[in-house]
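Lab meeting, item 3. Inverse folding demo.
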């Protein structure tokens, strides 16, 4: 019994494991791009709630790029929202110089609101 055989009908190599010939399958190589916090959150969401999409992206080799793109979009959206909300609330460097605790309190509130918006609109959608 040969360890490997080639099937000309489908173009696959098969390897003997026990009494069976199993196909030698490999996933395509993916580029390694950084997947940050937002990408990891979206990955967790895909695994739990969108299993079909997760499997499709994983098998096609596009999962890493997809998550890196989501992460970049989420970071840009978060930064933009924090800036816009800070301007709207009137949180300036002058407040930071006068009363640091008030500034930290307001900025934490703004960051929480921005995180909620990004999570609802991009990560868990």
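The presenter then showed the designed sequence:
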């Amino acid at each position: 019994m040969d360890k490997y055989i080639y099937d000309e009908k489908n173009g696959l190599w098969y390897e003997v494991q026990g009494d069976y010939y199993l196909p030698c399958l490999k996933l395509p190589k993916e580029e390694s791009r950084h997947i940050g916090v937002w990408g990891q959150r979206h990955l967790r969401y895909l695994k739990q709630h969108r299993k079909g999409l997760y499997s499709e992206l994983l098998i096609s080799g596009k999962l890493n790029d997809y998550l890196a793109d989501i992460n970049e979009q989420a970071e840009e959206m978060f930064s933009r929202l924090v800036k816009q909300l800070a301007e709207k609330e009137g949180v300036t460097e002058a407040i930071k110089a006068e009363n640091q605790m008030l500034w930290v309190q307001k900025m934490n509130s703004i960051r929480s609101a921005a995180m909620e918006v990004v999570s609802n609109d991009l990560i868990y959608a």
